[in-house]
Amino acid sequence: MEVAKPIIRKIDDTPESLKIFEEDLCSCSDENVQEIITSYPTVYIHNWKESDEYEVYIGESNNVIQRTRQHYETGLYNANSWQNRIIGKSAALYIIGHEHFNKSMTLDVENRLMHYMLSVPKVRKVHNLRGNPQNHYYPMEELDRIFSKIWRGLRKDNKDLFPTESMIHDSAIFKASPLHKLTKEQLQARDKIIERVKMALSIGAAGQLIFVEGEAGTGKTVLNSSTFYEICCLAEENGLDDLRCNLIINHDEQITVYEQIAEKLGLTDKYGEVVSKPTRFINTHSPNNPVDIAFVDEAHLLWTQGKQSYRGDNQLQDIIERARVTVVMFDENQILTTEQFWESQILDKYREEAKKNKNYIVLKNQLRMHAGKEMLNWIDGFTKRKEILPLPKPTIDYSIRIFSSPEKLDEEICKLADKEESSLSRLIATYDWEYNAKTDPTERLSKYWEVLINGWHKPWNRELESELSPKQKRYNKKLAWAEQKQTIGEVGSTFTIQGFDLNYAGVILGPSVKYKDGRIVFDPDSSCNTKAVRKRTLSDGTKKKFGEELLRHEVRVLMTRGVNGLFIYACDEELRKALLAAVE
Predict the structure, then answer these.
(1) Exposure string over 59-93, b if 16+ CB within 10 A, otherwise e
(2) What does the pLDDT look like over 68-89, one tens digit per residue?
């Protein structure tokens, strides 16, 4: 059934304009509009512009006129408030009503607007604390349709402030945002983490470890950011301004995303540097003065041996020693390099410690990929059991397709990337072709480091940056690799795509992935990923290679990026034949 059109009114964000708006409502000939704005709950958006960027405050109220007057009064008497920032600025106020709005729905619309606005490139800051997402209410089933109509209505007025919904959904900030409505599994995990953190801090405990385990796409990143932000909000509400909470990220692409989230939510202004890489955190904090809580996303990427500016033996242990409570998100199947490799007895020690203290949590539900059990089992069979199962039939939400040439795969991905709803589709490949970012371009045999298959070739990730204008380079600093427009002309790797989503992932399996005697073979000798195939010195002093296992992880990371589909081309002829036969 079609839902009614929302009522959206825009006025200048001043007391004078509010008074005129109230008078116009009283004399409004449309009694329906008058009743919905004055008698129903409404949602509102304050927004003002500074240096070509916006700041916003989103709220909901049973009496929007009275509530807005209160905001103006707060601005007059509190120079540090967001309300004060709109005085004298070119500010606007959107007031939104709907005939099906009730308290629960307006809270959900408010929360989703905050989530969306946080993800808008032109928005510098969202001044709310946190939303209050609702569970079940009538008519909850109409929320998506009503919200889309609201967003489209707002977009008609200002396309910079309200970009397309598909653009919002594809942004890396949206996907890592702490404002996601959590699943029941995630909510239970978040509540348990907060409970354990409160207990540890109340008794003055130190060196506590909370270990959260889950495979790719089970919602670890959202759980991590949501719990981190919830604790920051609880601290502010309870006057705990001295609580020290840090978010640690060991991924160059992701740290930019988290830094933007912290900046937009005002955490950087309040607490200073709250997001850092592991080595920086370790080097700038002391075990003698530990922070209260350290959250570690993608903890499987932490180093377990010294490297570059890190001179220790185990980054996780060093972080634990510098925090009263350490919360880690871990996926053993995403360990990609020898310096990240965990010896089983050392990893089990941390797991068992967390289990003993009732601090061990497992996430099981797949949230990223819209794939059914058969599809997920096919990927598990390939990456874990080294077998090729018959290809499941495609569904409306997800498909796996096999291609006979890289040209055809490239062509299909480019077609999808041209469509608004699947614009975040990219080619990604195993690291089986040379790449060295530090090499002088004049010393190369060709203009770019490239993925080269027979006569087909395409530059590796980051190769086309040199051709961009300074303005475009500055803009791209805020975007993940796949969000940048020029990357449709490149091939991504695990170094740029790990931890991120694509609409469709076009995976090129290079020469390191073979098929022999009915089994998949991961061949380190055919890989250019020296970080995965070189020897690793173990704790007992012996040296050992783990290339086959790490290359298997590499393929799994690539195959689990696509939300709506996985498209594959294999360089190895026997593997290609076996995959094409699996279609039959």
Answers:
(1) bbbeebbeebeebbeebeeeeeebbebbeeeebbb
(2) 999 999 887 888 888 888 877 7
Q: How confident is the model at residue 445 (pLDDT cuts 50, 70, 90)?
A: low
Among 230, 246, 129, CA closest to 186: 230
CATH class of the domain whose range is 7-163: alpha beta
Same fold flag, 7-163 and 184-363: no
For the stretch 183-242, pLDDT in tens is 999 999 999 999 999 998 888 888 999 999 999 999 999 999 999 999 999 998 888 878
Question: What are the sequence ranges of the domains in the chain?
Answer: 7-163, 184-363, 373-583
- Which residues lie across from 376 on neighbouring strands? none
Q: Who's near 13: CB < 8 A, 6+ residues apart?
A: 46, 47, 48, 86, 91, 92, 93
Are 377 and 389 contacting, i.e. CB atoms less than 8 angstroms apart? Answer: yes
The pLDDT tens digits of the residues spanning 166-199 come to 999 999 999 999 999 999 999 999 999 999 999 9
What is d(CA 521, CA 519) in angstroms, rounded to the nearest whole number?
Answer: 6
Helical spans, DSSP H, in 80-119: 82-85, 103-118
On whether the CB atoms of residues 337 and 531 are closer than 8 A, the answer is yes
Is there a cis peptide before residue 178, judged by omega within 30 degrees of 0?
A: no
- DSSP category for residue 545: E
Mean pLDDT throughout 410-427? Answer: 96
For the record, the structure tokens of 437 come out as 């970012």
Return the CATH number of the domain spanning residue range 184-363.
Answer: 3.40.50.300
Please, what is the end-to-end C-alpha distance for the chain in angstroms?
A: 41
CB burial string 478-504: b at 16+ within 10 A, e below: bbbbbbbeebbebbbbbbbbbbbbbbb
